[in-house]
Every structure is written in structure tokens, then in C-alpha cells.
Amino acid sequence: MTQQLEATQSWFPISPGAKSLILSCLAFSLMTACVKQLSISGIPTQETILIRALISLILCGVTLRRLGISPWGNNRFLLLLRGGTGILALFCFFESIANLPLAAATVLRYTYPTFTALTAWLWLGEPLKKSIMAAISLGWLGITLVARPDWLSSGASSLTPWPVAIAVFGAFMAAVSFVTVRKASKNDHKVVIVLYFQAISILFMLPFVIRDGIWPEPTQWLLLVCVGGLTQLGQIWLTEGLGSIPAARATAINYVQVLFSAVWAYLLLGEQLNSGMILGGLLVLGATLISVSASDRNHQTK
Fold first, then answer.
1. DSSP 8-state assignment for residue 156
2. What is the distance between the alpha carbons of residues 51 and 201, in angstroms, rounded to a whole number?
């Protein structure tokens, strides 16, 4: 059995950081499916964000207490920056979904790897290798085919400028957040980084929920608990992966989340897959494999 496992790993080696990122994509894609169901049932987006942050905050507190780690962290500027940019990115993403076709919002959201590569190059001095830029380009093409925005088929954009600007700003904030996680993880525990993000999310969302919130039904509570638990797993795996893999490489791996989301849309939401989505999914998978291969070579040379 051990020999078979070693043979499999030699045929397709994968570093712990790359594995953590792929697991985070799986958790986040399942979380997104739960969020979609909640939005259909009438739960406001701000309430979903708040409750998932509360659940994750409690889990973080329990974990830190068990490990005997201080929740205050070491580099509070970076921790606050990660929390602030993270919630802005999340809020902009949900706002773009509310005001744009879902396909277009998804395409605009996944422009963030380009921003991440540039931000990491300017801030962290991480090189822009050709393989990573190729993976980013391949993944972006795959995202476009999977999402199939209206403007791709009609040849002209019917999107209003303001929601598009919000979506692009959210993508930029996501990029800054990912790079901040990588920098902060050098001095702070991954659970502390997640704790700050959830605490700032609560502060941002609480006023909206006080004004517009509704009391969930039992089924909605179950979905909200799933959102919180999956968010916690996704954030921890994401932080773990970003702590050991260069940011540009890591965010290119995150393209696989779109492939997972397409599967859940088909299996759980009854959305039909077309040839463009299948081809796009293969391109996304190809971008992920290129990124994983690059991260493994980097991991083995350290």
C-alpha cells in the first residue's frame, strides 16, 4: 500500500501548500452553493456574512484557547489590513452579484489573480514567472468560457459602469487581501489571521443586519451553520496555503474553485452544463495543474 502511494505521489506530486489551497477551493465552492440557496430563500446577503462570521469567530476562539495562543496577534497592522480588505472584497463580490448577471460578476471577480501577481511583485518582490502568467491567462480564459457572460456572445457589453467598477474594485481588494495573508502568516498563526477577518466582518455587517435582518427558519439556520463551518475550513486552508506558496502561484491554483462550483451548480442546483462550460472547466483544471507543478518544483528546491 505504501509503495502504491509513493508511486502515485511520484507520478503526480503535490506540495502541502497546494493541497491546502485545493481543499480551500472545495470548501468555498460548497459554501457558495449554500449562500445561493439562502439568497433564493430570502436571507439578506449581509445577514449571511454576519452569521458565518459569528460562527467562524467562535470556532477561532475555541481553537486559540485550546492551543494556548493569544488572539491579539503580533503584526496588528497587517491583521487589520487583511480583515479590512477581505470584507471589502467579499462585500463588493456580493454587491456585483446583486446588480450584474451572475456570469459577468464571476468573470470580473476572477480577474484578481492578475492583480495578485502584480501586487506580490511590487510588495513582496515575488517574480512573475512565465509559467504562472501562462496559468493565470489560461485560467482567465477558462473562467470566461465557464461563466459565458452576455457580452461574450452578443459582442457588446450591456453592463452599467458602476456595478462593473464595484466588481473590479472587489477583485483588487481580494488581491491585496491574499498578499497580506502571505505576509502576515510569517509572524502570526493562521487562526489569528482568520479571527481578525471575521471580527472585522461582524463590525461591518452588524448595522445592516440590525436594520434589514430577518429571523431564519430551521432549514435556513442549517444552511447558515454550514456556511459558517465551511468558511472556517476554507479560511484556514487558504491561509495555510498562502503561507507556503508565492501569492501569484497560489491564486492561480484557486481557479479550480470555479470548476468545483460548476459541478455543484449541476448536481445541487440543477443548472445545465454546456460545451463551453466543460471546455472552460478543462482549461481551469489545466491552469491548476500548471500552478501545482510550479509550486512543487519551488517546494522541492527549498
1. S
2. 10
